[in-house]
Write a structure and sequence with these properties.
heterodimer; A: alpha+beta; Aldehyde Ferredoxin Oxidoreductase,  A, domain 1; Aldehyde Ferredoxin Oxidoreductase Protein, subunit A, domain 2; Aldehyde Ferredoxin Oxidoreductase Protein, subunit A, domain 3; 6-stranded mixed β-sheet; 23 helices; 18 strands; globular; B: alpha+beta; two-stranded antiparallel sheet; 17% strand
């Protein structure tokens, strides 16, 4: 690391005492790079083993890496915390303005602990930290208003990040998210609820500075080469144009998109919720994260008439992506793009994780059909595939109703199905609800063993795509999953958007790191990736995660994937092998 | 400004401006990109338009900003005392500030910002 690089500065904030201080931690960054690597070390340092995730001692950690602010598309921030949803590792990544704001404010990481006596928000402007009263913001029902209220109060326009929670986070729903810049999220594993437990409504961060490089001429040349590739490479085309919803039609064609709680892999009129259809009917604007030329954030316009007033309309902008169309569309039997947008709006207003919410609504519908839950338990709502109005109502009930079922649903479907039954069709992996790929072994084993149970841990769906032409043995599959996840620890320590993983090859990363004053060899980088991966598992196990008791949901064996039916012997062997491999790393 | 409506808010132009001033980062950039009151309404980009009779130069009590015949102004750093009047005089807010030097960062009319913009929001035209 270059000596004057502010990356090594860690900002600590104590919400109980309303104090903050800065520690220089060069050893942390020179050994673990930044992002994921530094965040997991800080989590080990700051999170006691046995605490409740809602304890004031649960830290919220944000970390960025040496490439943020220096190279294009190094645009993400890693958040880590003890997850209220799984009880172990909580890790979520977000873009927006966050990474550049943290780097430009002059920090590599921020650790927030304690609990404010009253609702508050934190404003970090370079070296100054302010604790602002947020009692007026607490309980605001429309998710989008809080950002605009804070925007009026704080400086740093154009460069700042405004992270905030909605009603779901205030009510400690274990899968509530943190929304950034209106359209990006720390979505998964319940960071919103950890904010809520600390009476923390929002965090604003801004700054502006220059960063040193080892050789400016080489830096400029490499930067411009990368920018050109990001703009023109075929590898990025998908994200430029239709965005991730480009996946809907090909995945549907290959029977890889889950439908109706995975009761089937086919549905008529899916073309109505394809990326092409969204673009044609709704695309209103494309926007980008800071320091990313790709602009993959697709904003749809939803025009809603006022029922009691002629010629009055409300037009809202909503961001859509593949995972949202899956979770709030195909998973619920919805094939109208307008209906998907209505559900996205409801989820955004509440500040919930869209994937978990969609999978939970799907489970409720099937549980209702099977008589596990009834109308008395749902406050009179009859869940029905494709019925958007009932799903909007259910989302509101999950947040606001105090009846027993909705209280339980606030903890996810692993908890709810353990209590009421319906475990066989509860699509959870290590207590986290299923992402949108039913493509084969890679996807499902990847979710189960990924350190954060996400499709982004090892991109198992991409491994499945390869397996369509070349079948993989158990050993090959396990090797690929582990290798990919370990390499992704490097990408997420830097912290580069995974969309650019094919541009940021190992060779490019070496050059970038050299210009940032890091001299890792290829072997050293592999070793760091392995160590970070192991460190995440160490944290999970320390929190009680039972690696010996992992199994796939029964439902995934019942419906063919893109690669046909999943063979239980094959997955059993893969599970045994993965357990051995992971244990040997610890 | 060619077409503000196409701005995606990526800030690539701001970083390009920094590099044109031999710096990595945002401090040395004299471009501003701001949302028009929330991202859904799009963005505005503020950049030096190379005024014929620049208010920034007129506001400088030390005559540190020299009007260039080809457009824009040139900063004579040795004359600048860091008073910041030039920044206040520019209603486009198109002057940056280098905190380390305590001096303004002035657009050098290089066109790097326009060159780096993939969405052709900016256009660089020589007079």
């Amino acid at each position: 690391m270059i000596k004057e690089d502010p990356l090594n500065r860690v900002l600590y904030i104590d919400l109980t005492k309303k104090k903050f201080w800065i520690e220089e931690r060069p050893e942390l960054f020179t050994k673990y790079i930044g992002g994921t690597g530094v965040a997991i070390r800080l989590l080990h340092e700051n999170c006691p083993n046995d605490i409740d995730p809602f304890s004031p001692d649960n830290p919220i950690i944000f970390a960025v890496g040496p490439l943020n602010g220096l190279f294009p598309i190094a645009s993400k921030t890693v958040a880590m915390f003890k997850s209220p949803h799984t009880g172990n590792l909580g890790e979520s990544h977000a873009g927006g303005r966050s990474a550049i704001a943290i780097r430009m404010a002059g920090y590599g990481a921020i650790v927030i602990k304690g609990k404010s006596e009253r609702p508050c928000y934190i404003a970090i402007h370079s070296d100054k930290v302010y604790f602002r009263d947020a009692t007026t913001l607490w309980g605001v029902k429309e998710g989008l208003s809080v950002g605009s209220l804070i925007r009026r109060q704080e400086p740093g326009a154009g460069l700042r990040t405004i992270m905030r929670i909605g009603p779901a986070g205030e009510k400690l729903i274990s899968y509530s998210c943190v929304t950034l810049e209106t359209y990006r999220h720390f979505g998964r594993l319940g960071l919103g609820a950890v904010f809520g437990s600390k009476n923390l409504k929002a965090v604003v961060i801004s700054g502006k500075r220059d960063i040193n490089v080892t050789n400016f001429k080489e830096y400029k040349q490499l930067y411009e080469e990368l920018l050109l590739q990001l703009a023109e490479s075929e590898k990025m085309k998908k994200y430029h144009e239709l965005g991730t919803p480009a996946n809907i039609l090909p995945l549907s064609f290959s029977k890889g998109i889950p439908i109706k709680n995975l009761l089937t892999n086919e549905i008529e009129k899916i073309e109505n919720i394809s990326g092409e259809s969204f673009a044609e009917k709704h695309l209103g604007r494309r926007v980008a994260c800071s320091h990313c030329p790709v602009a993959c954030i697709h904003l749809a316009t939803l025009r809603k008439p006022y029922e009691d007033e002629p010629y009055f309309y409300r037009t809202v902008y909503l961001s859509y992506d593949y995972e949202l169309i899956y979770a709030l569309g195909s998973m619920l039997g919805i094939t109208s793009s307008e209906d998907v947008l209505k559900l996205i709006e409801a989820v955004e207003d509440m500040g919930l994780d869209a994937i978990s919410t969609g999978v939970i609504l799907a489970w409720i519908t099937e549980a209702f059909e099977k008589g596990i839950i009834n109308e008395t338990m749902t406050d009179g709502i009859v869940p029905e595939w494709g019925n958007t109005e009932c799903y909007v109502e259910l989302i509101r009930k999950i947040v606001y109703s105090n009846n027993e079922l909705f209280n339980d649903l606030r903890r996810g479907i692993d908890y709810t199905s353990s209590k009421y039954g319906g475990k066989d069709f509860a699509l959870t992996y290590g207590k986290n609800e299923m992402p949108g790929y039913h493509t084969g072994y890679g996807a499902h084993i990847g979710y189960l063993f990924g350190a954060r149970h996400s499709h982004l841990d090892s991109a198992g769906y991409a491994i499945d795509r390869e397996a369509m032409t070349t079948q993989k043995t158990v050993e090959e599959l396990v090797e690929r999953i582990i290798k990919e996840e370990q390499w992704r620890q490097i990408l997420s320590s830097l912290v580069i958007c995974f969309f650019a993983r094919e541009i940021y090859t190992s060779d490019v990363i070496h050059k970038c790191l050299k210009l940032s004053g890091f001299g890792f060899s290829e072997e050293e980088l592999s070793e760091i990736g392995r160590e970070i991966y192991a460190d995440k598992y160490r944290f999970k196990i320390k929190c009680g995660f039972d690696i010996d008791n992992l199994s796939l949901p029964k439902r995934v064996f019942e419906i063919p994937t893109s690669l046909g039916f999943i063979d239980k012997d094959f997955t059993d062997k893969a599970i045994v092998l993965l357990k051995e491999k992971i244990k040997s790393l610890l | 400004m060619k077409d503000n409506e196409k701005c995606v808010g990526c800030l690539i132009c701001m970083f390009a401006c920094g590099r044109a001033h031999q710096a990595a980062g945002l401090e040395s950039s004299c471009i501003k990109v701001r949302s028009q009151g929330g991202i859904s309404r799009g963005f505005s980009v503020f950049v030096c338009r190379g005024c014929d009779d620049p208010p920034c130069a007129r506001a400088c009590p030390e005559d540190a900003l020299i009007v260039r015949k080809t457009g824009g102004v040139l900063l004579k750093e040795e004359r600048c005392t860091g008073c910041g009047y030039c920044v206040k005089a520019c209603i486009l807010d198109a002057i940056g500030w280098n905190n380390g030097k305590n001096k303004p960062v002035i657009c050098i009319q290089c066109g790097e910002c326009a060159k780096s913009c993939h969405y052709k929001v900016l256009e660089f035209v020589r007079k």
